[in-house]
Design brief:
7 helices; disordered C terminus; three-stranded antiparallel beta sheet; 7 strands; 274 residues; alpha+beta
C-alpha cells in the first residue's frame, strides 16, 4: 500500500512538471510561431527527427543573430527615407538641368565657332583683295598679299604679309626697308578701312621715311579714302601739307607760350579735312 502511494505521488509530480513544460512550450509557440501547440500537434506534417530539429534551430539562431545585428528599429526611418528621396529627386532634376545647359552651351559654341570662321574667311578674302589694290596704288605696281599660316584652323591661324615691290622678289614684309614697311602698313590699314570704314584715323608721321613720289601716291589715296573717313595726319612734310584740306600748326610767338594757327584751304561745305 505504501509503495502504491509513493508511485502515485511520483506520477503526480511528473504530471505537474509535464504540464509546466507544455505550458511553456505553448507560450513559446504562440510567441515565436504565432500558433498554439494544439494546432501544431494536429498538423499532418510528420514529426521531424533530431537532425532536422538541430538544423532548424541553427537556422533560427542565425536569423536571430542577423536581426539583432540590425540594431534597434528606427521609427522615423520612413520619414527620413521620404526626405532623402525628395532631396535625391531635386538633385537629379538639377543635374539634368546642368547637363541640358552644358549641351545647349556646347551647341551654341559650335554655332558661334562656325559663324565666326565663316565671317573671318569672308573678311580675310575681302581685306586681302583690298590690300592687293592698295599695295599697287601706293607702290606704283608690285604685289602684296596676306597668307594664313594654317589654312585648316582659321581660329588659331596667324597671318603673314608677303610683299613684292616693283623690281624686287616676293618676300616677307619684315625684310623690306623702312619706307616700304610704312607703305605696306598704310596699304593694310586702307584695306581694312575699305572693308569696315572708321569715322576717324590719326596718322603720326607715317610719311617720314617716304620720298616725294611715295608721298604723292599716299596723299592721293588719302584723298580717295576721305569720303568715308576723316584723316588727321601729323607731319613735317610740305608735300603732305599741300594735300590737306585744313592745316593746324602750333607755334611759339613768345617764349613759353604756345599758339594754335589754323588754315582752311576749302570752304566748310567741302569734304572732311585731312
Amino acid at each position: 500500500m505504501q509503495e502504491s502511494l509513493e508511485k502515485r505521488s511520483q506520477i503526480e509530480v511528473d504530471l505537474v512538471r509535464k504540464q509546466a513544460e507544455l505550458k511553456f512550450l505553448d507560450e513559446t509557440s504562440r510567441k515565436e510561431l504565432n500558433c498554439p501547440v494544439v494546432e501544431l500537434a494536429s498538423a499532418d506534417d510528420p514529426v521531424p527527427d533530431g537532425d532536422a530539429i538541430a538544423e532548424a534551430e541553427q537556422a533560427c539562431s542565425e536569423v536571430s543573430n542577423r536581426i539583432e545585428a540590425l540594431g534597434p528599429v528606427n521609427a522615423a526611418a520612413m520619414e527620413e527615407f521620404q526626405e532623402a528621396q525628395s532631396r535625391h529627386d531635386f538633385l537629379s532634376a538639377q543635374r539634368q538641368d546642368l547637363i541640358d545647359s552644358i549641351r545647349d552651351t556646347e551647341k551654341a559654341i559650335q554655332e558661334i565657332d562656325t559663324v565666326s570662321r565663316q565671317k573671318f574667311a569672308e573678311a580675310f578674302e575681302a581685306i586681302n583683295a583690298n590690300f592687293r589694290e592698295a599695295f599697287q596704288t601706293l607702290f606704283g605696281g608690285g604685289t602684296g598679299e596676306m597668307r594664313l599660316t594654317d589654312q585648316e584652323n582659321l581660329a588659331d591661324s596667324g597671318i603673314d604679309i608677303i610683299c613684292s615691290p616693283p623690281g624686287k622678289r616676293l618676300q616677307n614684309v619684315l625684310l623690306l626697308s623702312g619706307g616700304e614697311k610704312a607703305l605696306a602698313a598704310v596699304a593694310l590699314l586702307m584695306a581694312i578701312f575699305k572693308y569696315q570704314p572708321s569715322p576717324f584715323c590719326v596718322m603720326d608721321e607715317v610719311d617720314a621715311p617716304l620720298d616725294e613720289a611715295n608721298i604723292g601716291r599716299l596723299t592721293k589715296l588719302l584723298k580717295e579714302m576721305s569720303t568715308n573717313t576723316q584723316f588727321v595726319v601729323i607731319t613735317h612734310s610740305k608735300r603732305t601739307m599741300e594735300a590737306a584740306q585744313a592745316l593746324y600748326g602750333v607755334t611759339m610767338q613768345e617764349p613759353g607760350v604756345s599758339c594754335l594757327v589754323s588754315v582752311k584751304f576749302q570752304s566748310e561745305a567741302a569734304a572732311p579735312a585731312a
